[in-house]
Amino acid sequence: MNPDTLGLLFNVLTIASALFVLWIAGRIVLRNLSFIQNKISSNLAIQVLIWIGLGEIFIIPLLDLAEYIQRITMLPSDRGVAYTLWGSVPALVYELSTVFTGLFIYSATVMIIWKPLFRRVPPIFESIQLNSFEKVYSLLVIAALVNHFIRIIILGVTWQQPPLEVESLGNETGGFIAGWLTSLLLVATIFYVTSRLIERQIKKMGEISE
């Protein structure tokens, strides 16, 4: 498909996604209006800002999905090379590693917080009314926020583009793969420690309730 056509299609999908998430956010705000009025504010302007703010957060998973689809459908055909501090790698491998890493972070986040968030509802969520779809989508929103945090703070080191006069630390593709795997190992370690802390906190809450 022509790149211009793809770009137009993604722009249309972005607008449709924005309207969709604003609709979801509006349903949540209206359903929990009494909670917002009692716990946050009865000011209409603030309630509208809450609605828009939720919409901005809720659109992140859809934008990530659009980015990954765009990366896959518009894979480089000229066999270019992507240069990073760790080493150089074919542009195709660079794009696929980006998509795989994002999917890995999403999957790990969902696996970690699914049980504590939906089987044992935290007190803060007990007063908030969400249907099944909104709960699942909220989980994806949390995963999206975690994904962006990790990509900016941690994985940014892996994919940092060096100045032209600075040589890469690694040896071409091998250096990039080593840096990428090191980053994945660091992310996996963070997820493991986080899951253990969450399990410990849940066990502590169970002992307190008993």
Strand content: under 5%
CA radius of gyration is: 21 Å
C-alpha geometry: flat
The structural class is: mainly alpha
Q: Could you tell me the mean pLDDT?
A: 76
Major sheet size, sense and barrel closure: 2 strands, antiparallel
Total separate domains = 2
Number of strands: 2
Number of helices: 7
Strand order of the largest sheet: 1-2
Helix content range of the residues, please? over 70%
**Termini separation:** 61 Å
SSE succession = HHHHEEHHH
Low-confidence stretches: 164-170
List keywords for this structure.
about 210 residues; mainly alpha; 2 domains; two-stranded antiparallel sheet; 7 helices; 2 strands; about 5% strand; flat
Would you kindly provide a written description of the structure presented here, covering whatever features stand out?
- By secondary structure, this protein is mainly alpha-helical.
- It folds into two domains: 1-74; 78-210, no CATH class.
- It contains seven helices and two strands, in the order H-H-H-H-E-E-H-H-H.
- The protein has a two-stranded antiparallel sheet.
- Strand 1 and strand 2 (88-90) form a beta hairpin.
- Helix 4 (60-73) packs antiparallel against helix 5 and helix 5 (91-118) packs parallel to helix 7.
- The longest helix has 38 residues, at 172-209.
- The chain is flat, with a radius of gyration of 21 Å.
Write the layout of secondary structure elements.
Elements: H1 3-31, H2 33-39, H3 44-58, H4 60-73, E1 81-83, E2 88-90, H5 91-118, H6 132-153, H7 172-209
